[in-house]
Structure formats: structure tokens, C-alpha cells
Amino acid sequence: MKEKNIKKENRSRDARRHSWKYDLILLAFLAAAGIGIFLFYRIKARPGDDVSGTEPVYYVQVEVNSRVEQLIPLTAHGDYTFSNIYSKGENVLHIEDGGVSMISATCPDQVCVYQGVIEPPTIVPIVCMPNVVYVSIVESSEIRWDGIREEIVPKELRGLYEAWLESTAVE
Fold first, then answer.
1. How is residue 144 annotated by DSSP?
2. pLDDT: is 63 or 16 the higher one?
3. Hey, CA dihedral for 141, 117, 92, 106, is it positive or negative?
4. Which segments of 96-157 does DSSP mark as H helices, in order?
5. In whole angstroms, what is the distance from residue 95 CA to residue 73 CA?
6. Neighbour count for residue 161 (Cβ, 10 Å)
7. Which candidate, 53, 55, 50, places its Cα nearest to that of 98?
8. How far is CA 85 from the centre of its chain?
9. 75 closest CA partner among 93, 100, 52
């Protein structure tokens, strides 16, 4: 009887020792997999990255009352005024050196003016809630054509817009 208990104890001690080795191997494997996943997402191409040898082209997309009013190339330096006939508000955008800022607004709080300059590849827009104006920077390949009127499409984007129209045409 005593011999059986000794054999059981030896087996359980061997099992614990054996389990510890596999736990260590599993931990090393999980650490290596975690580092691999981290490096993959750190290195992989992001939207807007230059992977084709050409620089991405960015546009300033201005929405007033949830309707795209204008697409302006980020290289078109100058001031642009937008009015909202419903709120009777007016906003002035300034585009310069690859960045966009709101330089004036007729709203009382001026949060959009104090927001400062946004530059690509930022995802933070400039928003003027009282005047219902939303300004964002989009890459030409990320433009959602379904909310854009034909008359505001810049001539350099006309080919992309027409290709989108053909792809959505009902036959």
C-alpha cells in the first residue's frame, strides 16, 4: 500500500515538473506571437502611406448641413468662405502649407477657430456646431462619392467620379 502511494506521489511530481516545462514553452510562444503581431501592425502600410512611389493627394472636404459643399485640393492656398442659410452663419477657412484652419466664424463660442490647424493624415475634423459646418481632410482614394454633387467635383477628380458613376449605374 505504501508503495502505491509513493508511486502516485512520484507521478504527480513528474506531472507538475512536466507541466511547468510546457507552460514555459507556451508562454515563450505567446510572447513571440504578440511581438510578431505588434510589429506587423506597426510596419504595415497605413491609408495615406506612400507605397506606390507617388504621394497621396489630399482634399479638404467641407460639409454644411450634412451636405458636401466643396472639395478643395490641400495645395490650393487661400481663404474660403462658407455660409449656412438656415443658421445664417458664416465660416472662413484658411488653407496653407498643407494644413487647414478655421480663421473666423459667426458662432458665439468660437470653438472651431480655437481648434487650430489640422494636417493629413489626421482624422480629427474641424466642427462648428452652431453653423453646422464640418471640415475634414480626405485622401482622393477615400472620397465617398455618393454624397457629392457633380458640380463641385474638381477637374482632377472628374475621372474618379465618372468611374464611380459607371460602377453604380443600374443596367
1. -
2. 63
3. positive
4. 111-114
5. 9
6. 17
7. 55
8. 30
9. 100
Return the pLDDT at 3.
62
Within a 10 A sphere around the Cβ of 18, how many other Cβ atoms? Answer: 10
Q: Do 91 and 81 form a contact (C-beta atoms < 8 A)? A: yes
| This prediction's pTM | 0.63
Region 18-47: mean pLDDT is: 76
Amino acid symbol at 124: V
Query: For residue range 69-85, what is the model confidence (pLDDT) as tens digits?
Result: 899 999 889 999 998 88
Sequence-distant (6+) residues with CB within 8 A of 99 are 117, 118, 119
Q: Residue 164: enclosing H or E segment and its boundaries?
A: helix 158-168
CB atoms within 10 A of CB 84: 18
Among 8-12, 69-73, 94-98, the range scoring the smallest mean pLDDT is 8-12
The full DSSP string for 14-81 is HHHHHHHHHHHHHHHHHHHHHHHHHHHHHHSPPTT---SSS---EEEEEEETTEEEEEEETT--EEEE
Peptide bond into 121 cis (omega under 30): yes
Phi, psi of 31 (to 5 degrees): -65, -45
5 secondary structure, DSSP code = H
Set of cell numbers at residue 12? 504527480
